[in-house]
Write a structure and sequence with these properties.
Helix content is 76%, strand content 0%. By secondary structure, the protein is mainly α.
Length: 232
């Protein structure tokens, strides 16, 4: 779940901001940094309340918050400023913090102390595999959808299209430079549609993950507390 709903977004945002909106690398890092701040604050708070609230509720709340951020990000456009990226980054970071600590707690609650080193290695391995799979799938879908949308938009670039003629009366379809310029715009629009569709897909997938939280075995208070001390 972490690989699909959390890490996939981290792989989509930088290329979108840099290639479609012209953000330099430094500005891209600055507008995505609040996500880490939200995660840090959320994890500090969760560390104080994890012993009093069922970990499953915290994980479910985190998934719902991440789903909300994905829903907001599906409304991005080429004309927007950086405010939406900043706000959704903080929201997504808070949701991530609500997931990390409780998930680690319930994952290690059933292990004896002598097996926790091996459990940590396996836990990290599975998380990395999930991240790689999630990023690969969402990147594949984004590139594929961008090519499909580009093909559909390019169908309207023809001399007998009256809408195109009225919108761009000076467009010379016989000019190589004009064709290159309009192809660049079509590619840009198609890529943005693909990113929007990917964020909406992540919103739906994250919501589908929420019922799975109740399949997690509820650990006893003592085991959760002991595991929390170990994680600290």
């Amino acid at each position: 779940m972490l690989g699909v709903s959390i890490y996939s977004v981290l792989a989509l945002l930088p290329p979108m901001l840099e290639s479609l909106m012209g953000y330099p690398v430094l500005l891209t890092g600055l507008v995505t940094a609040p996500r880490g701040l939200g995660t840090m604050v959320s994890m500090l708070v969760v560390g104080r309340i994890i012993g009093r609230i069922d970990a499953r509720y915290l994980i479910g709340a985190g998934l719902l918050i991440i789903a909300l951020s994905m829903r907001m990000m599906s409304g991005i456009s080429l004309e927007m400023n950086s405010n939406l990226v900043l706000i959704t980054g903080v929201i997504s970071g808070v949701g991530s913090g609500l997931i990390f600590v409780p998930l680690s707690t319930v994952a290690f609650a059933t292990l004896t102390p002598e097996l926790r080193n091996e459990g940590a290695a396996m836990f990290t391995l599975i998380r990395n595999l999930g991240s790689a799979a999630g990023i690969s799938v969402i990147q594949f879908l984004t590139i594929r959808n961008g090519a499909i949308v580009h093909s559909r938009l390019a169908e309207g670039i023809r001399p007998d299209n009256t809408v195109l003629s009225s919108a761009m009366p000076n467009l010379d379809l016989g000019s190589i430079s004009a064709i290159a310029n309009i192809n660049q715009q079509v590619t840009r629009q198609a890529s943005m549609v693909a990113y929007v569709d990917s964020f909406h897909a992540l919103f739906v997938v994250t919501l589908l993950f929420v019922p799975l939280v109740f399949l997690i075995r509820r650990s006893s208070r003592g085991a959760g507390a002991a595991t929390l001390v170990h994680m600290d």
